[in-house]
Amino acid sequence: MLSPGHPQIPQDQPKPRLITIADPAPGAELSSGPPAGHRLKIISIQFSMTASAAVANRTIDLLISQAGVDFLRFDFTIVHTAALTYTYHLVPGMQQAAFTIGFDRFVPAPSDVYLFFGQTIQTDTVNLQAGDQFNNISIYAFAWPDFVNVAPY
Length: 153
Known about the structure:
Mean pLDDT: 88
Oligomer: single chain
Order of helices and strands: EEEEEEEEEEE
Largest sheet: 7 strands, mixed
Structural class: mainly beta
Number of helices: 0
Distance between the termini: 19 Å
Low-confidence stretches: none
Radius of gyration: 17 Å
Shape: globular
Number of strands: 11
């Protein structure tokens, strides 16, 4: 039986929150989770990737996973060539197919995408080079305290 002081499903939806994520080291994949003790309902995820001058075509997937198990995989289906910067947008609830405007790539996702404490959002990049840099990483989401996965003390 649930304790009335610790509901598993909050009755009210909180205000949206912008969560900025520190840039990983050059040549490293983006990898982050929700703030400690929180669960997120994703409104959008955005990040940029600046490819180094190393000649190689890169392709990027965005994963939501836990302990090595991928729950969702979003394929941005664009060839990212050397020395260019693209900004990638994951948009839950978007009805149309993926599209590109200039150097911005928009990819649809299911309407309800959640990220729970213990799960990670990460990139999986084919041909990632040592000088490639992910930056301007942000998650726009509704955030609740997570009393299910982290016991309150």
